[in-house]
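Q: Sequence in, structure out?
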Amino acid sequence: MRDDRDDEGKFAPHIPTAETRQIVQLHATIGTPHDMIARVVGIDPKTMRKWYRDELDLAHARANAAIGGALFNKAKNGDTAAQIFWMKTRAGFRETSNHNHTSSDGSMSPNRIELVSPDDDGED
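A: Exactly. Output:
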């Protein structure tokens, strides 16, 4: 907790520094709850929201950009797993197959589909 009170018992006004901005940015980037970030910095959450609005608002987007950029570069450099992940999440690719066994006019739809091998004579 803060203990920087003046002679009248009032807290000194908070002055953001490069160090406190970096701390808030780091914690916001990794998802630390705002109340906890305020405790780490030693200020009230309302004061933190007043002085560190950009750090709090933009941290998530900056983190996504950094990780997304690294993933994109790995995919461009031939990392197959990164390429597959990108295609599934960004390009809408899926590894599913959908077979429609309904007749073209919609009048027949199978209740059961039985797969039979070519050498199966059908007798058990």
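DSSP finds five helices and no strands in the chain.
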